[in-house]
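Entry 14. Structure prediction run on the chain below.
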Amino acid sequence: MKGQAALIAANSVGAGLTGSEFSMSKRDFDEIAAMLYADAGIYLPPSKVNLVYSRLAKRLRALGLESFRDYCQLVGAPDGADERLEMLSALTTNVTRFFRESHHFEHLKVEVLPPLLESARRGGRARLWSAACSSGQEPYSMALTALSVDASAAAYDVKILATDIDPRVVADGERGAYAEAALVDVPPALRQRYFIPPARGARPEWRVADELRRLVVFRTLNLNADWPMRGKFAAIFCRNVVIYFDEATQQRVWSRFVDKLEPKGWLYIGHSERVTGPAASRLFSQGVTAYRLDAGRGA
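Output returned:
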């Protein structure tokens, strides 16, 4: 995922609860799963035990701990907040790239942005949200799409909010520096205009140019906690995140997105996700994993 950090789907192999480097009891696994659910809304079924072991064993080694019981006591203690964040990062991943699921950006370019940017040219405001931004490729792709529609977009009242639960990937996005290989899906003309190539002798990274950077604002945000934003959004991207929540949490998040969309606003979700629950009576499919809010119907 991009993004709000998505749980790694595949199990590791060769690690178990007992007979390995560190002992892990069912109680240990259940406590870790409960903390991840409480912190991020991510559901860890028992089938993920090898995943948890393999990912967190690295943390136990780094900390010099002897067992998962010791680790659970550490992350469950009041002074274990920093390591609890390390645990969240270890158990989640951020699969993302520029223009991932390109049909969404084509839809944004053709259907959503032209009237939105026309309104902004006349003094209106335009707000979009990348709700699981990971290290920034998704919101910068949204911004590049806006600039491809109107090269003056950064001069208008246009902003893309980029949020993720993991402050580290948020910091990476805010830094806006990417290896050349990461830019392979960025159209050459956009890369040339809106990225700064590495200087001789510097780190081999392309940096986001100021004009592109001005369109994106990064913040840390947990989708299962309070949302401090007061305004609403013309479009929200939340892709390949909600699939890792249980059904009740999914339905709650969908409904919260409905409340944050402008009338006839758009929601883009992952290819394996579907809107369910009360939000399904308000959000109607308008293509491949693109939904539009029907402002005329009640929740």
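The longest strand covers residues 261-269.
Filed with the rest of this week's runs.
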